[in-house]
Amino acid sequence: MAPMRIAVTGASGLIGSALTASLADDGHEVVALVRRAPHGPGEARWDPEKGTVEADALAGCEAVVHLAGAPVAERRWTERRKKVLWDSRVKGTATIAKAMAALDPKPRVLVAGSAIGFYGETGDRAVDEDSPAGKGFLADLVQAWEAAADPAREAGIRTVHARTGLVVSPRGGAWGALFPFFRAGLGGRLGSGRQFWSFIALEDEIAALRFALDHDELSGPVNLTAPEPRTNKEVTEAMGRVLHRPTVLPVPGFALRAVLGEFAGDVTGSQRVRPKRLLDAGFAFAHPDIDGAIKAALPPPNRV
Ligand SMILES: NC(=O)c1ccc[n+]([C@@H]2O[C@H](COP(=O)([O-])OP(=O)(O)OC[C@H]3O[C@@H](n4cnc5c(N)ncnc54)[C@H](OP(=O)(O)O)[C@@H]3O)[C@@H](O)[C@H]2O)c1
After folding, report:
1. DSSP designation for 94
2. pLDDT for 35-88, tens place per residue?
């Protein structure tokens, strides 16, 4: 990619912080859109609640990567929390899409965060981007979240929905909630262990977002998941191998629900998602296998 000016929302998050570091390392000018007072020229303010973006924040940007959203796996899903999860994504995306559509000249591309929650529970059935939406709160949310980008799409801006799987990292997301169990030697399969987990290494997530920025042939939904989803039993065994911990004890459902609330359904449920569009476009995964993805998530001394 030739150096460009790129705006990023959710830049302080797990994915956003790794992405902005990667872009800045390669000489891109990154403008972090923040919800508080900006700290310097590399930041500009937006307010997803009020639907505003600071004047000129997006001026001169060729691309926007929109990753903001209230954390899904952090708290129990009360009705109030569901509204926060919903509004932060749907209103936030609409705000960014409208602001981009109003610019002249317009940015070339919007890469918008999305999730494999779109497909709902898939059991053993493999799904890809051509598969229909599933059922449940997350599936409904993802559809509304993606539709909220319509103003950008209708303005002719290439729009990619980065349907992300479970990012393998001790620092956030559902995986982040599970790492402490495994580190303490208390990790184990969840439920039957036969459910599929569509994971992705953080490094591949960042590379895939950058690939989407750079590849004009990609638009619409793009699954960001490793090529071969693994069952929870296989993931559990890999966690034990890489962390050198026993994994004999199944993690009880009540403990999971205590930590993850309704979201526990997402890790005890099965999602077998294939990254068809990325593979068709020639994307090469650095960590297609689960052991490699877990090793890559650990600080260097722990890497084998
Ligand atoms: N990590 C995963 O495994 C995973 C899986 C599937 C999908 N995703 C999606 O990918 C996106 C980025 O994920 P992530 O793991 O980097 O998330 P994250 O670490 O939770 O960061 C999200 C960022 O969104 C902003 N944010 C937090 N609460 C918000 C609110 N109420 N309204 C608006 N913005 C808010 C914050 O940035 P500021 O404070 O800087 O505004 C935060 O750093 C999210 O939309 C997430 O749903 C992640």
Report:
1. H
2. 999 999 899 999 999 999 998 999 999 999 999 999 987 777 889 999 999 999
Tell me the two tokens of residue 304: 């084998």
**The domain 5-302 belongs to what CATH superfamily?**
NAD(P)-binding Rossmann-like Domain (3.40.50.720)
- DSSP bridge pairs for 8: 32, 65
What is the pLDDT at residue 22?
Answer: 98
Tokens representing 203? 């490094």
Tell me if 67 CB under 6 Å of ligand 1: yes
Report the separation in Å between the CA atom of 110 and the middle of ligand 1, taken as the mean of its atom positions: 16
Strands 126-127 and 166-168: what pairing?
Answer: unpaired
Cα separation, 177 vs 45, in Å, equals 30
Beta bridge partners of 160: 111, 220
Q: Kindly report the average pLDDT of the chain as a whole number.
A: 92
Ligand 1 atom having least distance to the Cα of 166: 3
Written as six digits, the tokens of 217 are 């042939």
Q: How far apart (Å, rounded) are the C-alpha atoms in residues 176 and 167?
A: 9
